[in-house]
Amino acid sequence: MFIQEIDYKVVIGETALKVVTQADQETRGNAELEAVEEISGYLRPKYDCKAIFEAEGANRNRQILMYACDIALYHMAASLPNKMGMEIRKERYERAIEWLKQVQAGIVIPDLPEATTDSGESAAPSIRYGSKPCVDNSY
């Protein structure tokens, strides 16, 4: 699995993690898979998500790992009674999604492996182009 239990210590305390996961490893595992898929949805057009999420130990991108923890915790907290602790989870979730949108738009460029075709060329389009609508200035 991409996320290890020790990785959560950056974003949540040990006792709070037990409360959020409701001490159920299956719930935590499902939330982690959902977080990985949600992140992949933003990164897939340009980056090699398989390589990103198969990385282990120090080879994992720390920012992706932190945001994956935040997103997983958000999904786990959503199932708690009275949405306990949901404010901070929602805030961190929204920050993660905003960062992913900036990566997708090319504003933020993380150090991640790019997706390639079978011939080894970049699978992502490298140039965006377009123009403004034509204006007819007849007087």
Report on this model:
By secondary structure, the chain is mainly α. 50% of the residues lie in helices and 0% in strands. It contains 5 helices and no strands. It starts with 13 loop residues before the first helix and ends in a 34-residue tail after the last helix.
Task: Please specify the SSE layout and strand pairing.
Blueprint: H1 14-21, H2 25-43, H3 49-54, H4 62-77, H5 86-105
Summarize the structure.
The protein is an all-alpha fold and 139 residues long. The protein has one domain.
Q: Got a strand count?
A: 0
Report how far apart the termini are: 66 Å
The secondary-structure element order is HHHHH
- Please give the domain count: 1
Number of H- or I-type helical stretches:
5
Looking at how many chains there are and whether they match, the oligomeric state comes to single chain
Structural class by helix and strand composition: mainly alpha
Shape assignment: globular
Helix content: 40-55%
Strand content range: under 5%
Unreliable stretches = none
Major sheet attributes: none
The rounded Rg comes to 19 Å
Mean pLDDT: 86
Keyphrases for this structure?
5 helices, globular, 139 residues, 0% strand, mainly alpha
